[in-house]
Amino acid sequence: MPFLKANSPLPIKMTLPSATQFPAISFKSGVTDKVYKDHSELLWDIVEIMKSEMKELSLAGVTYIQIDAPRYSYYMDPKWRTWIKTELRVDPVTALDEAIRADNACFLAGQEGGATLGIHLCRGNNRSHWYAEGGYDAIAEKLFGSLAVDRFLLEYDDERSGTFEPLRFVPEGKTVVLGLISTKVPRMEDPDVLRRRIEEASKYVAIENLALSPQCGFASTAEGNLLTEDCQWAKLELVTETVRRVWG
User: Fold this and answer.
1) On the CB side of 56, how many CA atoms lie within 13 Å of its CA?
2) 36-72: per-residue pLDDT in tens?
3) pLDDT band at 176 (very low <50, low <70, confident <90, very high)
4) How far is residue 50's CA from residue 53's CA, in Å, rounded to a whole number?
5) What is the CA radius of gyration of the chain?
6) How far apart are CA 248 and CA 245, in angstroms?
7) What is the DSSP string of 66-114?
8) What secondary structure does DSSP assign to 10-33, as a single string?
9) C-beta of residue 130 within 8 angstroms of C-beta of residue 78
10) Residue 18's closest CA among 147, 192, 156, 181?
11) What pairing do the DSSP bridges indicate for beta strands 175-181 and 64-68?
């Protein structure tokens, strides 16, 4: 933080992985359970690490902390809900409730310094691939109503994401960042279609509480996604142009 403050005159943003990501991808039967009896026990040990980091960042003056890649998309997709039952051997409803409690424990720590808190609901982005599909309907009321964040960054780049209707559960005053521009494919989005989709979303969330971004990053791994650097810059310019036209 001292280095960043000394070299950046602008507000500082930090993005951290969700604590919920680690048990889902790292717990190995016959290995991890020699130390942690189950996924839950591992999760809450990681939560303590994340709480400490978020508190430290917030108190040090980071103004925006974003949690990325939580596993909430698992609960939207029927095939992943089955996986939770058969592989993790837990009830998906119980697992969702615990995930929300875990993330909220981290967000509470991040609030101590007054940082703006955001969460990005990723559906997979490695090398232009994806791993989960389905609208937000199955989790919207519980998730939007319970997570202690200021901003929801939601992927809406194709038909896999469903409709904007679940946004009716977003509490008044919270920001929804619409990920309408794909980081996976080189095809450029139509500016008029983008404006129409933002207008459609504003039926559920006030326009002043909406924002626009790419649906994810351009590189979830070192290799990046399957589009050129020029295409990436063009898509970022499209975000800027669309924002100016919609919000002025």
Assistant:
1) 9
2) 999 899 999 999 999 999 999 999 999 999 999 778 8
3) very high
4) 5
5) 18
6) 6
7) EEE--GGGGGTSHHHHHHIIIII-S-HHHHHHHHHHHHHHHHHHHGGGT
8) S--EEEEE-TTHHHHHH--TTTGG
9) no
10) 147
11) unpaired
Q: Which residue has the tokens 């909430």?
A: 72
Please give the C-alpha separations between residue 234 and each of 72, 148, 237, in angstroms, as whole numbers: 30, 34, 5
Between CA 89 and CA 53 the distance in angstroms is 30
Distance CA 65, CA 86 (A): 34
Tell me which H or E stretch contains 52: helix 39-59
Terminal alpha carbon distance of the chain: 33
Specify the residue for token string 């993790």.
Answer: 88
Pair 39, 88: CB distance under 8 Å = yes
The number of residues in the chain equals: 248
Q: What is the rounded distance in angstroms from the CA atom of residue 137 to the CA atom of residue 144?
A: 11
pLDDT digits (tens, 9 = 90+) for 133-159: 778 998 999 999 999 999 999 999 887
Among 45, 2, 6, residue whose Cα is nearest residue 22: 45
Model confidence pTM above 0.85 = yes
- Count of Cβ atoms closer than 10 Å to residue 140 Cβ: 19
The domains located in the chain, with CATH, are 11-247 (3.20.20.210)
Quote the tokens at residue 84.
């939770």
Which residue, chain included where needed, has tokens 């001292």? 2
Structure tokens at 212: 């626009």
Query: Residue 126 — pLDDT band, cuts 50, 70, 90?
Result: low
